[in-house]
Design goal:
- There is one protein chain.
- The chain is mostly helical.
- Helix content is about 80%, strand content about 0%.
- Helix 1 runs antiparallel to helix 7 (about 130-145).
- It has helices at about 10-25, 30-40, 40-65, 65-75, 75-100, 115-125, 130-145, 150-175, 180-185, 190-210.
Length: about 210
């Protein structure tokens, strides 16, 4: 069924609204970028946001191509994906606690992460979250027509990626500001433990709820 360009406006607005709610709800991506921006630099946070946006492009394409149907047809695949994602978040949480435990007064500062590593961390953090897949699939089922034309799919994916990148860039800019970074430096140990605890909770929740 052909849909005029003007007819794309309504589904795109619906998708943008639903995706905005999903993006601004704090989750692993939020804590990841906030911690990176506060502990390293604004640029580290922005690069991680770019990694998240790249993952959003892939999830958007998967949503338009029917990943929910795939998961329904192969529930074992979804279960394995959930466990893998949960284990990755648990790994990030334990890494946070280990890094903090290794820092003592007078000890050398931890090495700064490379931009490629930060990009990969943002990308993997998004791609290993099965809730992202299901939420994207639900949004497409709710806001998009049954058969999504290629142009509409491209515009939908572009909208989702732009919203994700814009929001997480804002998070990075906020947490990298001098005042917020100063608060982080004064409370580094407890705030990093909080971030690590959040990773652990998200990960355990994914693994335990099957």
């Amino acid at each position: 069924m052909d849909v005029s360009v003007a007819g794309y406006l309504a589904p795109l607005l619906s998708l943008a609204l639903l995706w905005t709610v999903a993006v601004v709800t704090p989750g692993p991506n939020f804590f990841n970028i906030a911690q990176l921006a506060a502990s390293h630099s604004r640029r580290h946070g922005v690069v991680a946001a770019l990694g998240v946006a790249t993952g959003t492009v892939l999830w958007g394409l998967a949503g338009g191509l029917g990943i929910k149907t795939l998961f329904n047809a192969a529930p074992t695949l979804y279960l394995g994906f959930k466990i893998a994602g949960g284990c990755y978040l648990i790994y990030l949480g334990l890494k946070q606690f280990k890094r903090k435990a290794a820092i003592a007064p007078g000890a050398p500062a931890a090495p700064r992460q490379t931009y490629s590593g930060v990009y990969a961390r943002g990308f993997l953090g998004n791609m290993t979250n099965p809730k992202s897949a299901l939420f994207v699939a639900t949004i497409f089922a709710t806001a998009m027509p049954a058969h999504v034309p290629p142009l509409l799919l491209a515009l939908a994916v572009l909208t989702m990626a732009t919203l994700s990148f814009s929001w997480y860039c804002s998070v990075a800019l906020f947490f990298a500001s001098r005042r917020v970074a100063g608060v982080y430096d004064r409370s580094r140990q407890w705030l990093d433990r909080l971030a690590g605890g959040c990773y652990l909770l998200f990960g355990v929740h994914l693994v335990a709820n099957r």
